[in-house]
Amino acid sequence: MSIPNEALQKVLQEIGQKKAFAEQQLVIVRQQKVANSRESRMLQLTASEMESLPKETKVYEGVGKMFVCTPIPDVKKRITDESEKLKTELTNLNKKEDYLEKTYENSKASLEQVLGGRG
Fold it and tell me: CATH no. for residue 73?
């Protein structure tokens, strides 16, 4: 079975674009995962430091260019909420990474199949 050169060129271009897009998105997702894990680690360190503080200690949170005195339970709640949000975000990033890896591999295999069948 022979495919006309123009059609073959169009198919190769589409598959190549899909592969390149998946590759770019994979890089972005992996960077987001690194940033997410860094943020998660900072929250863990903050939470562990707060556990060692006496109850009467004044805690300040940065708001813009100033600091606001915040009760310890409120800060702990915020840290917990942010940690949960980061876990959900990490789960979604893992799913996206799996999808993009499959797309990349399928595109790569399709390119090899088309080029292998031609030559």
Answer: 1.10.287.370
d(CA 32, CA 22): 15
DSSP letter, residue 63: E
**Domain total in the chain:** 1
Assigned token pair, 74: 């409120």
Closest CA to 40 of 88, 77, 99: 88
The secondary element (H helix, E strand) that includes residue 68 is strand 66-70
Structural domain span for residue 50: 5-117
Rounded CA separation 55/41 (Å): 23
pTM recorded for the entire structure: 0.77
DSSP H helix total and E strand total for the chain: 2, 2
Structure tokens at 73: 């339970």
Structure tokens at 92: 């979604």
**Under 8 Å between Cβ of 95 and 103:** no
Q: Give pLDDT tens digits for 55-86.
A: 888 999 999 999 999 999 999 999 999 999 99
